[in-house]
Amino acid sequence: MQPVPLLIRDLSFRYPSGQLALNGVSVTIAAGESVAVIGPNGAGKSTLLLHLNGLLRGSGRIQVGDTELRRETLGAVRRQVGLVFQDPDDQLFLPTCLDDVAFGPLNEGATWEAAVQRSMQALAAVGMTEHANTPPHQLSIGQRKRVALATVLSMMPSLIAFDEPSAGLDPWARRQLIGIIRHLPQTRVVATHDLALALETCRRTILMDAGTIVADGPTAEILTDTDLLLSHRMEPPGYRPPAAS
Ligand code: ADP
Fold first, then answer.
1. Reported pTM
2. Which residue from 46, 207, 213, 234 has its CB within 8 A of the most atoms of ligand 1, so it is best to mutate?
């Protein structure tokens, strides 16, 4: 696995309802870089992630490594880009964790032995080896989130996009996931409301609002720019609103 750069140019997308969710998004992310995408509800973060492996198709250009995303390259791009959904139960549906993690490699034509080997490596990377034969529904949400990440890692992607990785986690499970995300070698795009997680996992942050990128810079600078964050309905970590008079 080699991390790949991501290039997005003038990406716009309107849902069939008429809602414009992305409005001219352009961004370049270097190979191996870890970038947070923050913004208020409805900013377009999830919609952007769904474009990275072609689950949604807007106008504009997306290039993953050397491959431009087009109908003919959809399979090649999907092999490179892994999406980790907010709800792990969207990714876990088989009787055991190993079955779920091996599903992707088997589907790609790997032998059972090769799929198990890749899956056990992926489960080890998220600290879940001992639960290979456990039914996912018997695990905590924090454990299920880690197994959901393993289902992506077993495909050996070059870029991983996370949607709200810490949602629903207790502080201990969140801390474990932060440690895992920080040390992944892949290019990472982390959409999150958890600004402290953004600070710990990403040196760079993109702030979105109303389908556009309104700021892009070092996470430490963006998260301390109280005026910028408040003007986009975000609160800096530790913010206390002025007392009502
Ligand atoms: P975020 O992830 O930042 O909360 P989303 O990407 O979910 O933002 O949403 C961006 C915009 O698109 C919002 O206005 C939202 O209401 C709208 N939207 C999201 N999903 C759908 C959908 N399936 N159908 C219609 N509009 C949608």
1. 0.96
2. 46
Burial (0-12, 13-18, 19+ Cβ within 10 Å), 64: buried
Alpha-carbon torsion angle 147, 152, 156, 158, nearest 10: -130
| 39 Cα to the center of ligand 1, angstroms | 12
Structure tokens given for 82: 């892994």
Best mutation site among 11, 15, 48, 164 for ligand 1, i.e. most ligand atoms within 8 A of its Cβ? 15
d(CA 119, CA 103): 9
Ligand 1 centroid vs 25 CA: distance in angstroms?
A: 15
From first to last of its 245 residues, the chain has per-residue pLDDT tens of 899 999 999 999 999 999 999 999 999 999 999 999 999 999 999 999 999 999 999 999 999 999 999 999 999 999 999 999 999 999 999 999 999 999 999 999 999 999 999 999 999 999 999 999 999 999 999 999 999 999 999 999 999 999 999 999 999 999 999 999 999 999 999 999 999 999 999 999 999 999 999 999 999 999 999 999 999 999 988 888 888 76
Among protein residues, the one whose CA lies closest to atom 21 of ligand 1: 15
